[in-house]
Amino acid sequence: MSDIIQLLPDSVANQIAAGEVVQRPASAVKELIENAIDAGADKIQLILKDAGKSLIQVIDNGCGMSLTDARMCFERHATSKIRKAEDLFAIRTMGFRGEAMASIAAIAQVELKTRRVEDELGTLIEIEGSEVVKQEACQCNAGTSICIKNLFYNIPARRNFLKGNPVEMRHIIDEFQRVALANPQIFFTLHHDGQEVYHLPSASLKQRIIHLLGNQYNQRLVPVEEETSIINLKGYVGKPEFARKTRGEQFFFVNNRFIKDGYLNHAVMTAFEELLPDESYPLYVLFIDIDPAKIDINVHPTKTEIKYQDEKSIYAIIRSAVKRSLGRYNITPTIDFDQENSIEHLITAKPLEDIVAPSISFNPDFNPFAAESTTKRDPNFRNHGDYQKSAIPANWDTLYQISQRDAPQQHQMDTGEQKVEINDEQVIKSSERQLFQIHNRLILSQIKSGFMLLNQQYAHERVLYERFLQQLENHSGVSQQTLFPQSVTLNGADFEMLRELLPDVRALGFDIREFGKNTVVVEGIPAELPNANEHELLEHLLEGFKNNLAILKLDKRDNLARALARNGAIKAGTRLSLEEMNILVDQLFACQMPNISLSGKPIIITFTLAELLEKFEK
């Protein structure tokens, strides 16, 4: 029997390795930008076409490469970052394995132009599927320009698994934001299909956060800074009142490398304990500077996981530093009056001799029950006579008429005779129904066998959800035009998501058009939500959509209808009139699933007369 084990060709081995290193265009963008940063560039341009599927180009003004280095960078395990195994525990650069360029060259058409400052001519190399097609001298600027065309062109199965352009663009923006936050001293630009998405000049960390996430974040940031013998911590956390329902704005950096760490994230969430509503996540951008010998970053292909020698100490430092910053900037309440200095600035010192005791003047002869004719006017009291006239008005008895009015009709529990059969329960028709609202949260209605309690918020969510689903299927949403069109500016990822959802959003009744960079103009909103704020409505809609997408993995239209219904429904504590309650009950029982809320909880709970009587007999 012949031998069956053989070495794979380098091209096949590179394609296999590419499956771990390059999962989508965003992975290639991350590797190329990190290489530009390691090259010492202070200006990096990213140019994309078709969300990176057709073209990814990164241009930098770094150190450039010689002819030999340009050719070697596409070989497997060829790197300038380490020389021996011990160097893995002293890494300060972004890349070190030497796999990215070889993996990218195996699955795309790559064009590299590079020149060192001291060289007169640069080098041009073209590679397709790990094969060098062209290598020659060329004229180019100092630094490196690398183009990746037709990603996964020779692996159709992998290319077919790529999502639509808006989804892939969101992943690219996420990677771009992480690198841009970690390097605020570098000038970045991002162009997609000929339009500039980001223009980020060199700035401080706070300015970089504002440039990336929006001007409204200027008032939301609380600085954090702590220096210890274990780690140095700096960065910003968001104020609790601006926390969001999704985890999209949490950034941890270790030695300027973005990481994902649930343990450290728990430390920050613990610091916000009792300051956040349920299922809310604050913004934070925190940088940890630590000795590379105390961590291991070579534990995951994407380098987003790190092992620490002393995790518990790092956890305690982060938790205490964030908590102290929140307290220092009066975000958390304090009962230590020695540390509370906000009152001291309101009190000014004054000499004792300048303090004058307040004086009070009054008329000892004033009788409020005396007749107007016998009242003596005191010259020290202005408009005394006018006060006396209005003290006991002539029609004083009408003030008590409001207490004699009949109680509202919804408080009565009388039954009628006309009934309609719904879900095996006889529910009174709206023309005869008497309803009662309990604590502005529940609606009580009498039925044949007893009574039912209905959760008004869950009921309205169900009504809106099924209505929005029908509108999405029939494209029949009705729009209520706003008096003045409102412009809404979103961050890059949310803007790309809105562009993806725009046809369905318009089908719901929104009248929205794009208006420049990351900005849309809202000219109309769904008629079911007439009093909503346009900016808050869009933000909550996108937040709910992302939250449902991460947890429930819903269909796009179902997700959109669910998010808008939860955002537009009346909330617990809203006072409803009898007519509004009747309409809500009628609409609920017209739904396909009137008993179950969007979260799977019951909307209606019934109590039989026998159960009530049994309570009295105990």
Automatic annotation (TrEMBL):
Q: Which organism is it from?
A: Mucilaginibacter gracilis
- Domain DNA mismatch repair protein S5 intervals: 209-327
Gene Ontology biological-process entries: mismatch repair
Taxonomy-wise, where does this protein's organism fall, top ranks first? Bacteria, Pseudomonadati, Bacteroidota, Sphingobacteriia, Sphingobacteriales
Q: Which HAMAP family match?
A: DNA_mis_repair
Tell me the PANTHER family matching this sequence: DNA MISMATCH REPAIR PROTEIN MLH, PMS, MUTL, DNA MISMATCH REPAIR PROTEIN MLH1
Kindly give the CDD domains that the UniProt entry links to this protein: HATPase_MutL-MLH-PMS-like, MutL_Trans
All copies of the MutL C-terminal dimerisation domain together span 434-576
The protein's name in its UniProt record: DNA mismatch repair protein MutL
Family annotation (InterPro entries): DNA_mismatch_repair_MutL, DNA_mismatch_S5_2-like, HATPase_C_sf, MutL/Mlh/PMS, MutL/Mlh/Pms-like, MutL_C, MutL_C_dimsub, MutL_C_regsub
* Lineage top rank: taxon: Bacteria
A GO molecular function assigned to this protein is: ATP-dependent DNA damage sensor activity
Tell me its family.
Answer: Belongs to the DNA mismatch repair MutL/HexB family.
Q: What does this protein do?
A: This protein is involved in the repair of mismatches in DNA. It is required for dam-dependent methyl-directed DNA mismatch repair. May act as a 'molecular matchmaker', a protein that promotes the formation of a stable complex between two or more DNA-binding proteins in an ATP-dependent manner without itself being part of a final effector complex.
